[in-house]
Specification:
The protein has 28 helices and 24 strands. The longest helix is centred in the first third of the chain and has 58 residues, at 235-292. A hairpin with a 5-residue loop joins strand 10 and strand 11 (497-508). The strands form 6 sheets. A 5-stranded antiparallel β-sheet has the order 4-3-7-6-5. By secondary structure, the chain is α+β, with helices and mostly antiparallel strands.
């Protein structure tokens, strides 16, 4: 549709325009003639019109996508507008599907839509004529334009239906009013102007001439159905709409015919392309085969002249270039020189003889090359000789195998010299014949010092492994063994001891006699050291498990004794009080051990959480010192406290930092002989708080300074001073300090000379003074509430119940989850204390049910599960608090007192 119209097409257009004009001239005088009402005409006309406009828009849209034409894009949007308004006109036509149309309105709705329709479409055609040289269609133009068209049509329908009563009337019953004719006259003038713009458009395309026909029919339609007629269902009403239908069908027909012709052209072009591509593929395949042949191929004519030669032939011909003397005498070069050399085989082929592998030698500039020449005649359809094919193969490389082998040996030597393994070659007489660079680096002897010497004369075998190495050498030389692996210690020239793995391979000749022995040596010293470290860690683990078992059994013995004492009758109150205090101390000791182990695990997995606040580090260190005073007093140590006078503030978890300094002070007290001296200090340095704990105790050797912060490590010579520790205190201290963004290190002048542990933490601004909370509850409030305790451990449940009853609470006890729910439903409890791992129903399931009750009880989990994920699961199930067994009784009582006060 974008090409210029032919003469025949222009003649067809003129005939069509003449027919339209002649019919208009006959119909115009009788346009107001009333005719019979035919409502069924409207849906038939509307359906065809809507379909024609949609098809036209779709066909034009294909051209839009291929050419990105802004003009065609506007025209597509115009046909979309026409189809949508025609649909709305059909649905609002009075009496067609409903009295006032399907979309509502009144009798003014249809004429207003008809006028808007015929006024808007010419504007899109005018935009088409003015956008011929516009830039390409911008992205998303059609999507946005289509959306705007839909919105405009929706607005027109809304105004002409819901707002019809505010619009000026254009119809009186079925007759048109003067205002309608005035508006129609303006639309007619606009349409005529657009028709004139299309006629004057240059350059003119086939689409332009048929669009001019369509606009002429459009003008005739407006004149008949809007200007010259007198109302609905008269001659102008019917004739005008037929003109409008013709306007839509003319462009659609032209597009359809053009698409059919385009399909035929594409099919013919495609077939031609296929045939051309097939010929090109065969020619390319033949050319590719000739070009990729490893031999030189020449085609010569009957006179022996070369008409075609492949790349390999051209490369071969370069070897026939004459020397300087030849060049001065005008000697032949390239293909001509090659043909001159092989003129006898060429004459045989041109003479009609077929032959294979004639051998030809060339000696040019001192370079001798050997070729095979094959030839065959090529005949045309009349069996006359047309040409001959000559195939030249260069077989020089076959004679250079020895040179290639030498190059391969050079590459092997390069690999030997650059391998990360030490390579040593020695013969049956134990004489070293190869000593590569890695062997020099590993053992220290230079190649010229070793090659020619006996391998067993080098002082590189550790005396403890000399017999083992001698046996391995004898096994290689005196037995059928061809491969042997050994691991032994070796000495370097500077006296270092290495642990090496030797991979030995024997090469023999055809008679089975030993030619040489290759030894590949791998230094595994670091790996062995790592294995030693793993073995030591395994031993530490065993010691730790034994110590842990001992430390956990220690508190159990006094607890068992306390149980036996309590069975005795008539114990005095002070004895009972002593027993309770003793049991509390032992339980606290077990809880501390378990908490330390959990903290080590959490730090290692990055699961520990810090509750940071601004803390005065000096005050915190004094508190830590007070908690360690019992150990210091037992050891009769002197403590020098060297803290700065002003407060040093750090952003820290006070509990964890107290634990850090308590561990450091406890260690100093434990590993210092009685009557020793301890120094605890704090200063500010470069924006950091520097704290230290020093002693004059057992000290640390160099190896232990590096490992003292590893878990379960204790100084072996001072293990008797550990007083039952597990060796995890310093590991915890290091983990907590690093979580605070600080560092910790140990210094010592050696065993027996004391040790100093230095902690560095970043300083922060001073904390704001705390304001006491108003209305703070006083301690010592009585619980006085009903509590439900559920635990499948009968002793734990009953002992907790008696403890709560002693505080004034009413307690009900259950031993599984289902029983706990039954007891709660029988009597609601204010507080529910649940174990998590119970039969029937778990504590999490019971808590999820009780959390939805109203009023809701306060839910406390008392369980042996202390991981962070266990706490998260408890809170998600509805628990208000999560405590890990063993729970200090006073801690639980204080918690429940807070609940009762709240």
């Amino acid at each position: 549709m974008k090409h210029h119209p032919s003469g025949a097409q222009l003649r067809h257009v003129v005939w069509v325009l003449g027919g339209l004009a002649l019919a208009f001239a006959l119909l115009a005088p009788a346009a107001g003639l009333p005719l019979a009402r035919a409502p069924e005409f409207i849906p038939m006309y509307g359906s065809v019109l809507i379909g024609a406009n949609l098809l036209t828009g779709i066909l034009l849209l294909g051209h839009v996508h291929t050419g990105r034409s802004r003009a065609l894009g506007l025209l597509v949007l115009g046909y979309l507008l026409t189809a949508l308004i025609a649909s709305s006109h059909l649905l609002t036509f009075p009496g067609l599907f409903a009295d006032q149309g399907v979309l509502g309105g009144n009798r003014q709705t249809t004429p207003w839509l008809h006028v808007a329709w015929h006024a808007l479409f010419p504007l899109f055609v005018l935009g088409y004529t003015r956008s011929t040289h516009a830039p390409p269609l911008p992205p998303h133009f059609m999507r946005i334009g289509g959306l705007l068209i839909v919105l405009v049509v929706a607005l027109l329908v809304l105004v002409s239906t819901s707002g019809a009563r505010w619009l000026p009337p254009l119809m009186d019953a079925d007759r048109t009013l003067p205002l309608y004719h005035w508006i129609a006259g303006a639309v007619l003038a606009l349409s005529g102007g657009v028709l004139w713009a299309i006629v004057r458009k240059r350059p003119r395309t086939v689409l332009d001439v048929w669009l001019a026909v369509a606009m002429a029919a459009w003008v005739f339609e407006v004149a008949l159905s809007c200007v010259l007629n007198g109302g609905m269902f008269d001659l102008g009403f019917y004739a005008g709409r037929l003109y409008g239908l013709a306007a839509a069908l003319f462009v659609l027909g032209a597009l359809a015919i053009d698409n059919i012709a385009l399909h035929a052209r594409l099919h013919a072009t495609f077939q031609e392309m296929i045939e051309t591509r097939a010929r090109a593929q065969w020619q390319s395949l033949l050319g590719t085969v000739l070009q990729q042949l490893p031999d030189g191929v020449l085609i010569v004519d009957a006179a022996g002249r070369c008409v075609m030669a492949n790349d390999q032939a051209d490369r071969m011909a370069a070897c026939f270039a004459p020397g300087a003397a030849g060049a001065q005498t005008g000697a032949k070069t390239g293909i001509a020189a090659m043909l001159d050399l092989i003129r006898d085989p060429v004459a045989r082929a041109v003479g009609g003889e077929t032959f294979l592998d004639a051998v030809l030698e060339s000696d040019h500039d001192g370079v001798r090359r050997t070729y095979t020449v094959s030839g065959a005649p090529l005949r045309d359809g009349a069996a006359e000789l047309a040409a001959a094919v000559i195939v030249v193969g260069d077989i020089t490389e076959r004679t250079e195998a020895s040179a290639a082998l030498a190059r391969a040996l050079d590459q092997t030597r390069y690999l030997v010299e650059n391998t990360p393994l030490a390579v040593i070659e020695w013969n049956r007489e134990l004489v070293v014949t190869l000593w590569n660079g890695r062997a020099e680096e590993l053992f220290g002897w230079r190649q010229h010092e070793v090659v020619g010497a006996r391998i067993d004369a080098l002082p590189m075998i550790h005396e403890s492994d000399a017999d083992q190495v001698g046996q391995m050498i004898r096994r290689l030389l005196d037995s059928p063994t061809r491969h042997a692996k050994s691991r032994n210690r070796n000495l370097t020239r500077d006296g270092r001891v290495l642990c090496c793995e030797w991979y030995n391979s024997v090469l023999v000749d055809e008679a089975g006699q030993i030619l040489t022995v290759f030894s590949l040596v791998l230094d595994v010293t670091e790996r062995e050291q790592a294995m030693d470290g793993l073995r030591e860690a395994d031993q530490r683990k065993d010691v730790y498990i034994a110590t842990l078992a001992h430390e956990l059994r220690n508190p159990l013995a006094p607890i068992a004794n306390a149980a036996s004492l309590l069975r005795a009758k008539s114990l005095p109150p002070e004895r009972i009080e002593w027993i309770a205090a003793m049991v509390g101390r032992q339980v606290a000791q077990m809880a501390r051990l378990l908490d330390d182990l959990l903290d080590v695990s959490r730090i290692g997995r990055g699961k520990i959480e810090l509750r940071r606040a601004r803390v005065d580090l000096g005050r915190l260190m004094r508190d830590a010192l007070q908690s360690s005073m019992s150990l210091i007093e037992n050891g009769r140590h002197q403590v020098a406290l060297r803290l700065v006078d002003e407060p040093l503030w750090v952003e820290a978890d006070a509990l964890r930092l107290t634990q850090v300094f308590a561990n450091l002070i406890n260690n100093a007290a434990k590993y210092t002989p009685p009557g020793g001296a301890l120094e605890i200090g704090l200063r500010s340095e470069n924006g950091e708080a520097v704290a230290w704990v020093a002693d004059n105790g057992v000290g640390l050797d160099d190896g232990m300074i590096e490992r003292v912060f590893d878990p379960f490590v204790q100084v072996a010579s001072a293990r008797h001073l550990a007083q039952g520790g597990l060796g995890i205190g310093l590991s915890l201290a290091k983990g907590f300090v690093e979580l605070h963004g600080g560092s910790i290190r140990a210094d010592s002048d050696g065993a027996g000379r004391g040790a100093t542990f230095i902690v560095r933490l970043p300083l922060c601004e001073a904390a704001e003074p705390e304001v006491p909370a108003e209305g703070q509850a006083t301690a010592g409030a009585v619980i006085g509430r009903h509590i439900l305790v559920a635990d499948d451990n009968v002793d734990a449940a009953e002992s907790l119940a008696w403890l709560l009853r002693s505080e004034g609470a009413t307690v009900t006890v259950a031993h599984d989850g289902a029983q706990a729910l039954r007891l709660y439903h029988a009597r609601c409890a204010d507080i529910v204390v649940l174990d998590l791992g119970m039969p029937e129903m778990s504590g999490l399931e019971v808590a999820a049910i009780l959390a939805d009750k109203c009023p809701r009880p306060y839910l406390v989990a008392v369980t042996g599960r202390g991981r962070q994920e266990d706490r998260t699961a408890s809170l998600a199930a509805g628990f208000d608090h999560h405590l890990t067994k063993p729970v200090a009784p006073q801690q639980l009582i204080e918690l429940l007192r807070g609940v009762t006060q709240a």
